[in-house]
Amino acid sequence: TEYQTILVEQKGRVGLITLNRPEALNALNNQLMREVVAAATGFDRDPSIGALVITGSEKAFAAGADIKEMQGNAFPQVYLDDWLGPWDELGRLRKPVVAAVAGFALGGGCELAMLCDILIAADTAKFGQPEIKLGVIPGIGGSQRLTRAVGKAKAMDLCLTGRMMGAEEAERAGLVSRIVPAADLLTEALATAETVAAMSAPAAVMMKESVNRVFETTLAEGVRFERRLFHALFATADQKEGMAAFAEKRKPSFENR
Ligand code: HXC
């Protein structure tokens, strides 16, 4: 497939998507939205892929929605088009997604990072929801996912002032999984995704589904959901292999069934 705003590569069992609009700090225009969603859903359906990585450049993961493209938008059209709706498909990916974030992750860029499952930040990463400075609010879940990630106190601070927070603050607040030196970012993200991709695929997909259930249900229902999936995994060959490998003091070799 020919993409103009992203680079797409398969590295082993990992699908890598690199945002590539350097002239606009990877601002998320409509074409980039369509391309990221197409590439990510393609990897999600591909059985040779076990996990995804989404990254940007050294300077910017993404500096938000493309302000120049959206400034002329009008209500009836964005409403009828359900503009930005396609981004929701990233939240429905079943395979684990690692965000590798260096530099600016602002507005839609921060929201895109939060749509991923493991967020690895370079020490240069800067996060923020500056939409309020443009007279709008976040549009792909920023006010919701940021608040779930860092709590009301910090979410209100960030969203209402539009200020940026650095990697250290973001990790302390619970937005970021790990911080790594900028030079190691992609290597670490790919290694992490490769580790996940080497797990039993049914277990990894159920793991993700189970963690995400936290945000949709009560504790009792969530525990029940987890228990059902846990029981179901005893129907897989990979459970037998994983436990036999432990008992035999060897590495497991999963076949994703
Ligand atoms: C369009 C953008 C852009 C954006 C940067 N550029 N961000 N173009 N949309 N969001 C362009 C600049 O116009 C400039 O183009 C080039 O990228 C380099 O940016 P500079 O501003 O010159 O770089 P710098 O001085 O280093 O400042 C970096 C920055 C700043 C602090 C990140 O660019 C900035 O504040 N950007 C906007 C951030 C923002 O408000 N994001 C939220 C958008 S609203 P030229 O042609 O002049 O060289 C949003 C809504 C969410 O995301 C809805 C869901 C998607």
TrEMBL record:
Gene3D superfamilies: 2-enoyl-CoA Hydratase, Chain A, domain 1, Lyase 2-enoyl-coa Hydratase, Chain A, domain 2. SUPFAM superfamilies: ClpP/crotonase (SSF52096). It comes from the Bacteria. Pfam families: ECH_1. Its EC number is 4.2.1.17. The keyword Ribosomal protein does not apply. It catalyses: a (3S)-3-hydroxyacyl-CoA = a (2E)-enoyl-CoA + H2O; a 4-saturated-(3S)-3-hydroxyacyl-CoA = a (3E)-enoyl-CoA + H2O. One of its GO terms (biological process) is fatty acid beta-oxidation. The keyword Lipid metabolism applies. Keywords: Fatty acid metabolism, Lipid metabolism, Lyase. Belongs to the enoyl-CoA hydratase/isomerase family. Could possibly oxidize fatty acids using specific components. This is Probable enoyl-CoA hydratase echA8.
